[in-house]
Design goal:
The protein folds into two domains: about 1-120, HUPs (Rossmann fold, 3-Layer(aba) Sandwich); about 130-275, HUPs (Rossmann fold, 3-Layer(aba) Sandwich). It is built from twelve helices and nine strands. It has helices spanning about 1-15, 30-35, 40-60, 75-80, 105-115, 140-155, 175-180, 190-205, 205-210, 225-235, 250-255, 260-265; strands spanning about 20-25, 65-70, 90, 120, 130-135, 160-165, 220-225, 240-245, 270-275. β5 (about 130-135), α6 (about 140-155) and β6 form a beta-alpha-beta unit.
Length: about 280
């Protein structure tokens, strides 16, 4: 229910309606019904929606709530429902045996394929809002799309935007152009020079956003290390971590990108995935 709460709050802040969707395809539907007399899958689904509508309505009574139940495969149904949405919000099922969030193939596909940004809210995400949003930038088209979206969200929330670049040591094969441009070598002085260059590049990258959203407080953060781990650490007290999706292949995990995939799997804070603009 953390995802429902997050979505209701976001609808209130943005002055938007909230569509609550329950999609499920019951396997062997008729056989299951015969084996459980009195069990009605449709009634069960509607009770889930009724509970969700009651919870969201109590939390944000000013938000118009539209419950939708579709008997069908989850991913196609949600992708269709999200075509005209500003954001698709979903939950992850807590922590798995290795301490990572159980996102599953459904979440991975939605984050990779949805036409709008996708926010994944872990079930253990808790605590008051900090007024801080972290966005990962490396100069790639997807990260610049994420930066543009993050500026809008930060303005809506009156939050500080921490624009963050992680300099791999050395840069990975798929590192963005800003991260590659900042890299100077493994020595202490070279790393210091790289971080200074990275800050200058971030200031330049945030220029358009500052111009269009002059009220947003912006900080530039440059750190070195493993990209996903450092981003998760930087966002430990953040309301939201925003990353881009810029895959290099035809499978959902590859379309999502290794850093975004890892962040979604391990972060205990809500994560937004923003797709790169299509050519």
């Amino acid at each position: 229910m953390r995802a429902l709460d997050w979505a209701a709050d976001e609808a209130r802040i943005r002055d938007r309606g909230l569509r609550v969707v329950h999609a499920f395809e019951w396997p062997m539907r008729r056989v299951a019904a015969r084996g459980a007399p009195g069990f009605d899958p449709d009634d069960f689904a509607r009770r889930i929606l009724d509970d969700a509508r009651e919870r969201a309505g109590a939390r944000t009574p000013e938000v118009a709530i539209e419950p939708v139940y579709v008997d069908g495969d989850t991913v196609p149904v949600l992708l269709t429902q999200a075509r005209d949405a500003e954001v698709l919000v979903m939950g992850s099922r807590g922590l798995g045996t290795l301490g990572s969030a159980v996102l599953g193939s459904t979440g991975t596909r939605l984050a990779a394929e949805a036409a709008c940004p996708v926010v994944v809210v872990p079930s253990n995400a808790d605590g008051p809002r900090s007024g801080r949003i972290v966005v990962a930038v490396d100069g790639s088209p997807a990260s610049m799309a994420a930066l543009d979206w993050a500026f809008t969200v930060a303005e809506d929330h009156e939050a500080t935007l921490a624009v963050t670049m992680v300099c791999d040591d050395p840069p990975s094969l798929f590192a963005g152009p800003l991260a590659k441009a900042a890299y100077r070598g493994p020595s202490e002085s070279e790393r210091a020079a790289a971080q200074e260059i990275a800050r200058e590049l971030l200031v330049e990258a945030t220029g358009p956003g500052r111009e269009h959203h002059p009220g947003v407080r912006v900080t530039e953060v440059v750190v070195a290390g493993h990209a996903a781990r450092r981003l998760i650490r930087e966002a430990e007290d953040a309301d939201l971590l925003v990353v881009g999706s810029r895959g290099h292949g035809g499978f959902a995990g590859m379309l999502l990108g290794s850093v975004s995939q890892s962040v979604l799997t391990h972060s205990t804070r809500p994560v937004a995935v923003v797709r790169a603009p299509r050519d």
